[in-house]
Amino acid sequence: MERYRELLSERFGLQQFRPGQEAVIQSLLAGRSALAVFPTGAGKSLCYQLPALLLDGLTLVVSPLIALMKDQVDQLNALHIPAARLDSSLDYAALQTVYADLDAGTTKLLYVSPERLSNERFLQRLQRWPIVLMAVDEAHCISEWGHNFRPDYLKLSALVSKLKIQRVLALTATATPDVSRQICQHFRIAETDFIQTGFYRSNLALSVRVCASEHRDQLLLDRINTCRGESAIIYVTQQKTAESLAEFFSRHDRPALPYHAGLKGERRHQIQDDFMAGRCSIVVATIAFGMGIDKADIRAIYHYNLPKSLENYMQETGRAGRDGLPAHCELLASGEDLTVLENFVYGDTPDGSSVWEFIQWLLDQAEQFDLSVYQTAYQFDVRPLVLTTLLTYLELEGVITATAPFYSAYKLQFLSSPDSIVARFNPQRAAFLQQLFATGRRGRIWVTITPEEASAQLGENRQRISKALNYLEEQGLIKLQVAGARQGYRLHAADRDSKALSEKMVLLFQQRESRDIERLHQVCDWIETTGCYQQALLRYFGEELERPCGRCSACNVAEQGLFKPLQLPHRQSEKTDPAIIFAIVKTIRGENHQALIQSRQLARFLCGINSPQASRARLGRHPLFAALADSPFATVLDICNKPIENT
Prior knowledge:
Blueprint: H1 3-10, H2 21-29, E1 34-37, H3 46-54, E2 58-62, H4 66-78, E3 83-85, H5 92-104, E4 109-112, H6 120-126, E5 131-136, H7 151-154, H8 156-162, E6 167-172, H9 177-187, E7 194-196, E8 204-210, H10 216-225, E9 231-235, H11 239-251, E10 257-259, H12 265-277, E11 282-285, E12 298-303, H13 310-317, E13 327-333, H14 337-347, H15 352-363, E14 368-371, H16 373-380, H17 384-396, E15 400-414, H18 418-422, H19 427-438, E16 441-442, E17 447-449, H20 451-458, H21 462-474, E18 478-491, H22 498-527, H23 533-540, H24 553-559, H25 578-590, H26 599-606, H27 612-616, H28 633-640
Parallel strand pairs: 1-6, 1-7, 2-4, 2-5, 3-4, 5-6, 8-13, 9-11, 9-12, 10-11, 12-13
Antiparallel strand pairs: 14-18, 15-17, 15-18, 16-17
C-alpha cells in the first residue's frame, strides 16, 4: 500500500497528491470500486494510472474520444509507462504491435472506446488478458439523467461481471448529485468510496456578455487582440461556424485553426499536436476538442455560441488555467443560438410512426436474430445513434437481450501462399483451413469469406471460423479486413402489445427531449441570474460557495454599483412569417420525396437536420435543405402537420 507514495515521485515526477487522489487510490488498491467526481484538470487520470503500475494485470481505460486517448498514451509513454490505445486511426502495423505487446503482458494500460467493447473480434481477445481494473472516463455518459447519455455505456456494468473485473473506477467532472447516485448503482460503488472534491476554481474569471449575433465576430476579435500570444479555445456549435470564424481571425492577422468531426482524423491529430506544442495558439472548435487534453497554460475559453447545458459549460471552461494562474472564460450570449440548439434536440426525437413500424418488425423476428444498425436506421429513417438508444431502451425493458456483435464478411489477403499456411498445422486443423479457404470468393488480391455461408457448408459454428481467421492474422499469416457489422439479439415475449410498447418508447424519447430542452433553458436562467455567476453555477452541482467570487462579470459590476441582471433578447426567428414557411412546405410536398413523407421528416429537412433516407436520396444538396434552419423546430413541425390544402 505504501509503495504508491514512492511511485508518485519516481514515475510521475510529482511531490504530492492533489485533493481526493490519495483516497481514490487507496480504495482501488484495497480491491474496491470508486467514483471520483473532480473538476476538469484536477488530476483524475492519476487515480488509475498510478494503481495500474502496482496491480498485477491490465488496466482497461474506457474513453469516448480518440483525442483523449492519444494525448494520455503519448504522455504515459514519455514517462516510460507501457500504455497503448486501440482506435480507428491506427494502421495495420501499429495494430499488430499493440496486440503483440498485450499478448506478451508488457502493456499496463489499454485505452479503448466504449463502442469497441461491442466488437466481436476484440471481445474474444479481451478475455485472454487479465484485467485487474477498469477505468470509465466521462462516467456521466452512463446516466440517462446526465447531459451526454451514450447507450454503449449502459453495457459496461454487464461487461464488468462477464470479465470478472474486481474493481472499477468511474470518473467525471460534471455529475450532478442525481447522476452520481446512478453511477454508483451501476457499478456497485459504496457511499464511502464516492470521493468528490469542490468544483470551485478560484483562478477562473467567468464573464457573460449579451450581444447580437452579428456583432460577435468583431467583439471576439477585439478580445483576442488584447491578449496576443495567449492560448485560447473558442467553442462554437456548428462545423461551418468553426471554419468561417477561424478564417475570419486568420484574415485579421490572428492565425486560428478549426477543429470539428468533419475533418479527417489525421488533420484533427495535427491540429491537436500544433495546439499542444504552441505552434497554434487559437483553436475554433466544436465541443469534441479539449477532452482529456492536458495543456496547463490555456489562458482563455470563449463560448461564441451558447453551451447546450451547464454541464458542458463547466467542463469546457474547466480546461482553462490548469496551472493555477489566472484565466478568463467569456460567454457571448445570443438568444438566436437557442433555435439551432433546440433543433438538434428535436431532430433526435424519432417520428412516432417510425418507432411503431420498427417495434412491429422487431416483434416479428425469430427468437435469435441480428441486424445491421446502419441498414435498419435507413429502413426506418432514424439516426443510427437514436436506433442504438431505442435498442438499449428495449433491452432495459426486457424485450430483447444483446448477444454478440459480429461481422457478416471477412476479407483476407494471404501474406504467404495458402499451401504454406496450411502446412504449419496438424492434419485436422490443416483440413479445416483448406475447406474454409475454399468457401471464399477470390478477387485479384482479397478473398472474401462469409462466416454464415462457411458455417453452413462446413458444419462448424461461426465462432470457430472467426477465431481461426483472427489467429492467422495474429500470427502475421494473413491481413484481415471486416465488413457488414451486425448485432445479434435474443427476443423475449414476442407476444408483447406492440402498441403499448411503442407508446412507451415514444414517451421515453419525449421525456429525454424535454430534459435536454430544460438544460438549454437552465443555461438561459443562469445567464439571467441575479447574483454571482460562480455561486449560481456551483449550486446547480450541489455545492455552496459561501460568498460571491468577486471575479465574475456580475460581481465586477456589483462592486461598481451598476448591477443589473442580464436578459437575453427575444429571438428574431420567433417572428418568422408563417406564410413563408407555408410556401416552402407546399413546394417540397409538391415534389413528392419519399424520404420526406412524414411531417417530422420534412421538418427535420427544412431545419437542416439530415436523416438516413434523406441522406441516401442526396437531399442535403437540395436548394431548400436548411431553408428554415433559423426557425424554431416546433413552429415548422406544426405547419408540416397541417393538411396540404391549408398550406
